[in-house]
């Protein structure tokens, strides 16, 4: 067994697409230098399999937001798990963003087309390179594959066991709501993929989302969500006039706020300093919602690390806004909703699968 482990790279394939997952596993298994020890559909299933199967390398899909590949890579780094990573991205821009933004070392980057269309000899060298170098940092130029070192725009932890959520003492009615703001981080892509599809096509309010993510990944998140939602979901570019039934996601690495203009209320995208070590920051968006919408805003706090959004929720509540929070039990990380819930300023605490209903109720939607 020891001899086999020394001569064959043990690989776990993590990919949200069943066809790609099976293709990668089959193609890698054809090499005498590789043993595919398992597959996983996302970060949540990959973590326990990594502990059980002890792979040398994980191939991780970063194209599908539901996989949460960056969360997985960061969690493994924080746990100091000795495993190499081969990260598959959609395009050259995403690869460049990884090289300049993350601190996950060592890993190789392969464009997704290289694995799904031609499998042109790059994925296997990347796997073998990662298997041979995970014990120490590597540098670009060490092999034919691209090696990078980067980190997410906001720290991401290994999930902790959630504590019970106290219920708010009383609930108010939401009257005359005009906008919904959502803040989330770790676990957010999966959570959003369960909440947003539950909103009807005639949802009457604009929705603004801050999801802690690096540059270039929020666009793919928006595209992924748009495919499963009845509403239009897109990454904000700045200058969009807010309209009912549209969902705008803050671009990774930049802040988003709202402002009044002669034409209506519009988004503003800025590179102001990070807040709570994050950019985009939930507090930054929520402050502007307080200034522009006041009591007619609905704020939703979802799974995530840290306290980003707590101060913004306090300011919104002081203006009379309506607050909804995800309960501890359904959070991947019970961090961001904890402060608002435990301070008693939240109007509704609900499990993930009830959030869409609670948002609709507050917005006066079906």
CATH homology group of the largest domain: Methylesterase CheB, C-terminal domain
The total number of structural domains is 2
Q: How is the largest sheet built, in terms of strand order? A: 9-10-8-7-13-14-15
Beta-strand percent range: 15-25%
Helix and strand sequence: HEHEHEHEHEHHEEHEHEEEEHEHEHEH
Second CATH tier, the architecture of the largest domain: 3-Layer(aba) Sandwich
Shape: elongated
Tell me the major beta sheet: 7 strands, parallel
Structural class: alpha/beta
Question: What is the CATH level 1 assignment of the largest domain?
Answer: Alpha Beta
The average pLDDT value, as a whole number, equals: 81
Give the termini distance in whole angstroms: 60 Å
Question: What is the share of helical residues?
Answer: 25-40%
Count, helices: 13
Tell me the total number of β-strands: 15
- Low-confidence regions: 1-6, 114-120, 134-170
Give the radius of gyration. 21 Å
Q: In words, what does this structure look like?
A:
By secondary structure, the protein is of the alpha/beta class. The chain has two domains: 2-148, Response regulator (Rossmann fold, 3-Layer(aba) Sandwich); 179-363, 3-Layer(aba) Sandwich (Rossmann fold). Helices cover 33% and strands 21% of the residues. The protein has a seven-stranded parallel β-sheet with strand order 9-10-8-7-13-14-15, with helices on both faces. Strands 2-1-3-4-5-6 form a six-stranded mixed β-sheet, sandwiched between helices. A two-stranded antiparallel ribbon has the order 11-12. Strand 3 (57-61), helix 4 (69-78) and strand 4 (84-89) form a beta-alpha-beta unit. The longest helix is centred in the first third of the chain and has 12 residues, at 18-29. The N and C termini lie far apart (60 Å). Mean pLDDT is 81; it is low at 1-6, 114-120 and 134-170.
């Amino acid at each position: 067994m020891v001899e086999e482990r020394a001569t064959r790279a043990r690989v776990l394939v993590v990919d949200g697409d069943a066809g790609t997952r099976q293709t990668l596993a089959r193609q890698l298994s054809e090499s005498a230098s590789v043993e595919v020890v398992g597959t996983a559909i996302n970060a949540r299933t990959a973590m326990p399999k990594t502990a059980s199967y002890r792979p040398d390398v994980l191939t991780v899909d970063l194209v599908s937001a539901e996989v949460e590949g960056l969360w997985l890579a960061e969690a493994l780094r924080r746990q100091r798990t000795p495993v190499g990573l081969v990260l598959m991205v959609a395009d050259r821009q995403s690869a460049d963003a990884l090289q300049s933004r993350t601190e996950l070392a060592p890993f190789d980057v392969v464009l997704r087309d290289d694995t799904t269309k031609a499998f042109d000899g790059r994925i296997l060298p990347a796997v073998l390179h990662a298997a041979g170098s995970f014990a120490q940092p590597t540098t670009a130029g060490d092999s034919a594959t691209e090696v990078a070192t980067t980190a997410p725009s906001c720290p991401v932890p290994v999930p902790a066991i959630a504590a019970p959520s106290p219920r708010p003492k009383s609930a108010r009615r939401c009257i005359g709501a005009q906008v919904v703001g959502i803040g989330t981080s770790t676990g957010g892509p999966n959570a959003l993929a369960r909440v947003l599809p539950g909103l009807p096509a005639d949802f009457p309010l604009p929705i603004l989302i801050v999801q802690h993510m690096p540059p270039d990944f929020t666009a793919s998140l928006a595209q992924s969500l748009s495919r499963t939602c009845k509403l239009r979901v897109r990454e904000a570019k700045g200058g969009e006039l807010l309209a009912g039934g549209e969902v705008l996601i803050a671009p990774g690495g930049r802040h988003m706020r709202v402002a009044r203009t002669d034409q209506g209320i519009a988004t503003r995208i800025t590179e102001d300093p990070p807040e709570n070590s994050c950019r985009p920051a939930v507090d930054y968006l929520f402050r502007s919602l307080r200034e522009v919408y006041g009591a007619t805003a609905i704020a939703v706090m979802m799974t995530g690390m840290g306290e980003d959004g707590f101060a913004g929720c306090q300011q919104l509540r002081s203006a009379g806004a309506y607050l909804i929070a995800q309960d501890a039990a359904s959070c991947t990380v019970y961090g961001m909703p904890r402060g608002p819930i435990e301070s008693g300023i939240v109007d509704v605490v609900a499990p993930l699968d009830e959030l869409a209903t609670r948002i609709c109720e507050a917005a006066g939607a079906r």
